[in-house]
Amino acid sequence: MTALTVLATGPLSTVQDAGRPGQAAWGIGRSGACDRAAHRLANRLVGNDEDAATVEVTFGGLAVRADADVLVTTTGARCAGSSCHDAPVTLPAGAELRLGPPATGLRTYLAVRGGIAVPPVLGSRSTDLLAGLGPAVLSPGVVLPVGDPTRPEPGVDLAPVPDPAGGTVTVRVLPGPRRDWFPDAAWAALTATAWVVSSDSNRVGVRLEGAPLERSSTRELPSEGMVRGALQVPPSGQPVLFLADHPVTGGYPVIGYVTDGDVDRCAQLRPGQLLRLRG
Amino acid sequence: MPGGGIRVLPSGSTALLVELADLEEVLGLYAALVEEPLPGVVDVVPAARTVLLTVDPAATTLEAVQAAVRRTTPRTGRRGTGELLEVPVHYDGADLADVGELLGCDPDEVVRRHTAEEWTVAFCGFSPGFGYLTGAGAWDVPRRATPRTRVPAGSVALAGEFSGVYPRASPGGWQLLGHTGLAVFDLSRDPAALLRPGTRVRFVDVGSGR
């Protein structure tokens, strides 16, 4: 079987697909690629089903060697050294692909024609870091099997998509289920603040730093279900924007939700970048 | 009274949160949504007072799902009709005596009450396969003042109105009554989770030896 050998991983590289929808009632979260649009694009460019598994690379640093000619592409954060970004290119047998740090954005998706074919766990090849499910975090020496192609090659040379934005990113926010647990001043602050992305951010969520949001109700919230995009406000008043590996249920009030399509752009935010939430 | 007492709260562009009066109503609505799934609904997540519905925007709209959930008739009297699971327990937990003091009885009586109760999995969360079990008895036990950094897999525990079984080792603040050798979450089994919403549970005392 064709395979890619991992030579280096950078800060964090994991296998991701479309995750595990439909199992949340059993405490199993969806997980999957943080930037779903970039993940789908990567698969389309090499002629895979959109939910085939790719490698999600966090802040570059991944290096792989192909043991046979393989069609590959990278999408999302554009890394130095990727000659196949937003464009499918054949990586010849024995050749290496080495990703440097990205100029903007955080997460890069490496797709290979045929998909990464590690054994699925509960129907998905995604690594869920919060739940501890799925393939292990990648490490040097790991051999990633490549599956058989399921569709014809797409015959696309290049996808004209913009790179993730540097600087301030603005996304749309809708009132959440517990908007009424906060005074109007808190909603005004939420949508007026230039939130700083914390270095504590990860696949569970983007932690935002700014003036703490006040609550008007100090009741205890019985845990309730949530999905990605939720802006949960813990007692610190500093919101957490949930990404792919968020807990299935949470016990802090959700003041608002970033619209689903905009969550992909939030998955590309790096520590120190500014986020504006437009109401 | 379909839809009469429910509140539907917004949860972003792909989900709705239905708020209900109590856990019985949650169980009833969840049972209805499992027996007659709504088209385009990807996930239905029961919790203590709410049911979250996640939709596939390519298949339906939030408006259509909201209208459909308001037309849904919650099942009544659902407690006591799910599959029955027997969980063998060694009642040798570190907090058995403390729980007895909290409930005003001796440890043997705690075991008697815990095994006499018919529990029902109300909802899951915290970690894959962790079920929140409720019973009819007066269980109201606070969490430990200081959570343990490691609770072993298989620990049978109490907190608030709930009982639970830790699917794997994790930090935890629940009061430990004992342990079971039954793997309540096992990836080599289908389904992996034994404690799914609606499942009835009987704990069976199998002695205190490890």
Automatic annotation (TrEMBL), chain A:
Gene3D superfamilies, per the entry: Cyclophilin-like
Domain Carboxyltransferase: 25-278
One of the Pfam families matching this protein, by short name: CT_A_B
Keywords: ATP-binding, Hydrolase, Nucleotide-binding, Transferase
One Gene Ontology molecular-function label: hydrolase activity
InterPro entries associated with the record: CT_A_B, Cyclophilin-like_dom_sf, PxpC
Source organism superkingdom: Bacteria
Listed SMART domains: AHS2
Record's protein name: Biotin-dependent carboxyltransferase family protein
